[in-house]
Design brief:
- This protein has 249 residues and is α/β, with parallel strands linked by helices.
- 33% of the residues lie in helices and 19% in strands.
- It has seven helices and seven strands.
- A seven-stranded mixed sheet has the order 3-2-1-4-5-7-6, sandwiched between helices.
- The longest helix has 19 residues.
- The chain is globular and about 45 Å long.
Length: 249
């Protein structure tokens, strides 16, 4: 959650009607069902760095804990929750006990394999993991009370489309909770020079560059009601916007 350019979906990061049967376990190196070239490309990148990422420490632990506490206060044991871009599952393991059921997904089989290893060591009955692409409509319609997207929205191919799929997955009144690096708020040398160079040599994924205001406009296009916009970082300039929005009833 704490590296800027290549931060995978999150370390920030179900009830009987939860649509998990279509998200079946897959073998290492496989892509989500119906995945095209884009999903396969993303999966290859994150699969390749999954073990190294899992071993990296969280840089701003105080900021991470502040976000966790904030999200815990938004959840309840009566809620079905979906996390998109769960990475290696650290955040899902922390939040699942505060839900009725949490389905945590990621495009990378390598990341999900590590998440399942963690879950086997530390079982949480409410939690399950599955391979799925945030850029694809894989999550059902109106099946969740909350959708979590931590360190993800700058990594999707199409921001409007990914937001639309997340909103579709929510029940009326449900919450979309995100924490997103706003790369365009960094020194311009990073998004427009360093990142393209790193991407060219395979050291960074495709990254969307936007500011908080642009992200809020994209969310508003989905008809969502903004509940809160915050920053939780405790070390230097915080470019991660923590945003809570509600689907109208």
């Amino acid at each position: 959650m704490d590296s800027i350019a290549v931060s995978p979906p999150s370390r920030i990061p179900s009830s009987p009607h939860m649509p998990s049967p279509t998200l079946a376990p897959r073998s290492a190196g496989s892509s989500p069902p119906g995945a095209g070239a884009s999903a396969a490309r993303k999966a290859r990148f994150w699969d390749r760095i999954a073990r190294k990422y899992a071993a990296d420490p969280i840089a701003d632990m105080a900021g991470y804990e502040a976000t966790l506490a904030r999200v815990q206060g938004l959840l309840s044991v009566e809620q079905d929750v979906l996390e998109i871009g769960c990475g290696t599952g650290t955040t899902a393991l922390r939040l699942a006990p505060f839900t009725r059921r949490l389905l945590a997904t990621d495009v990378s089989t390598g990341m999900i394999d590590i998440a399942r290893e963690k879950l086997a060591i530390r079982p949480v009955p409410q939690l399950s993991f599955a391979v799925a692409d945030a850029d694809a409509p894989e999550f059902g319609q109106g099946a969740y009370d909350a959708v979590l997207a931590f360190n993800l929205l700058h990594l999707v191919d199409d921001l409007d489309q990914a937001l639309s799929f997340a909103v579709q997955a929510l029940r009326p009144g449900g919450l979309l909770v995100s924490k997103t690096p706003c790369i365009a708020e960094m020194n311009p040398l990073v998004p427009y020079l360093a990142l393209p160079l790193m991407k060219a040599i395979g050291k960074a994924p495709q990254v969307l560059c936007f500011k908080e205001a642009q992200l809020l406009v994209a969310i508003a296009r989905q008809g969502m009601e903004i509940v809160s916009v915050e920053r939780h970082g405790t070390r230097g300039k915080d470019i991660r916007a923590f945003i809570v929005v509600r689907k109208p009833r």
